[in-house]
Design brief:
With 114 residues, this protein is mostly helical. Helix 1 packs antiparallel against helix 5 and helix 1 crosses helix 6. The N and C termini lie far apart (28 Å).
Length: 114
């Protein structure tokens, strides 16, 4: 699960930075819930399923405000730093595979403050 969360975190950093504005910041628990269906895929233990794309789209739609996006970004970076076993290439390709256009490079080095 560590590797998957690392990959998912990287992918979601990019997604979080693009979403449109809302009010309360999204917590790490919500981020994990949205991305949990992606773990088998990014860890090489399963195929990319519809539940994963639904989760990515849901997270993307939920991260509306700048604080939301920053919260998701920081959560994903934290998860990525603490987990191993994730295929970074698979994680980085998730948004495109799920039909979400993210104009940012998906990377653990992303600056969540900008």
């Amino acid at each position: 699960m560590g590797g998957v969360m690392k990959l998912i975190g990287t992918v979601l950093i990019a997604i979080a930075l693009i979403a449109t504005p809302s009010e309360a910041a999204i917590g790490c628990g919500a981020v994990v819930s949205y991305l949990n269906p992606c773990l088998p895929y990014v860890s090489g233990k399963g195929a990319l399923g519809g539940g994963c794309c639904d989760g990515i789209k849901g997270l993307y739609g939920s991260a509306k405000t700048t604080p939301d996006k920053q919260s998701v970004c920081n959560c994903l970076k934290s998860l990525a730093a603490s987990n191993t076993g994730i295929n970074a290439g698979k994680a980085a390709s998730l948004p495109a595979q799920c039909g979400i256009n993210i104009p940012y490079k998906i990377s653990p080095s992303t600056d969540c403050s900008t």
